[in-house]
User: Which sequence fits this backbone?
């Protein structure tokens, strides 16, 4: 039974990263109607759903995000993943603090950009000081391993624990950018690839998606895109359209749904 659901609310995002799995852009017009999302999640909650994570696009650019966070408060564990740019608007920040999501993940897409690293550190610190549980997702590309390692060290120095820093391997597009497990360990503070750790040194601890080791379904998790398609994860191309915004339709969509690996074969 699915207990954790990821919902992409729209494909609108001012950042328009070229590697975005949703192809999100400033002019993205695809979105869920707010009332439909609310009805869908309330129905899923009545059938055992425990947590929802809002993504996009940029969820803080979605006009109904604060309404959804409000009506689902106490009903589901509510988290969202944001690039953080809308938080520069004091009104957006105030609305987010009032909605009090259970967790906010800020995405660091370009760890080789010092100004973006600094902005994310300031914003995650601000959320934490206001009592919002927060963490940082760092996109790790093979061409920027050293920069990603610097980002991890800076966040750790700012007081974040390994559990609050999620390392996401770059996938899709240019498969040469997808790091190995050893390279991810280096980013987390371990020895460089090809080097040995000092005798007795503990292996680096870090959070990463379970698919870092092996692609596979989780019966407890699935993803619903802004286009109402359902998949076992956000990145897979094996998706089927949700016939209706109901728990029953979600169960039907998942029945027999395959999972296609989003990266290149290793």
Assistant:
């Amino acid at each position: 039974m699915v207990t954790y659901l990821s919902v992409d609310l729209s494909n609108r995002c001012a950042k328009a990263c070229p590697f975005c799995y949703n192809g999100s852009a400033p002019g993205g017009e695809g979105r869920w109607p707010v009332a439909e999302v609310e009805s869908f999640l309330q129905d899923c909650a009545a059938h055992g759903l425990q947590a929802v994570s809002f993504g996009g696009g940029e969820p803080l650019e979605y006009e109904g995000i604060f309404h959804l966070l409000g009506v689902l408060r106490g009903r589901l564990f509510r988290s969202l993943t944001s690039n953080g740019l809308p938080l520069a608007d004091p009104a957006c920040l105030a609305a987010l603090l009032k909605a009090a999501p259970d967790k906010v993940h800020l995405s660091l897409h370009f760890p080789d950009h010092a100004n973006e690293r600094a902005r994310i550190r300031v914003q995650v610190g601000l959320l934490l000081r206001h009592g919002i549980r927060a963490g940082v997702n760092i996109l790790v590309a093979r061409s920027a391993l050293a920069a990603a390692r610097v980002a991890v060290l800076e966040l750790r120095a700012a007081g974040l624990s390994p559990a609050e820093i999620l390392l996401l391997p770059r996938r899709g597009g240019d498969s040469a950018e997808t790091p190995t497990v050893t390279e991810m360990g280096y980013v987390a503070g371990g020895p460089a690839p090809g080097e040995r750790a000092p005798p007795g040194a503990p292996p680096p601890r870090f959070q990463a998606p379970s698919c870092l080791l092996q692609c596979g379904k989780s019966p407890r998790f699935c993803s619903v895109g802004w286009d109402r398609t359902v998949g076992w994860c956000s990145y897979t191309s094996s998706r089927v359209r949700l016939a209706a915004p109901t728990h029953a339709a979600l169960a039907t969509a998942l029945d027999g749904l395959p999972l296609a690996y989003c990266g290149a074969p290793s």
Summary: The helical segments are 34-46, 65-71, 90-99, 114-129, 145-157, 181-187, 247-254.
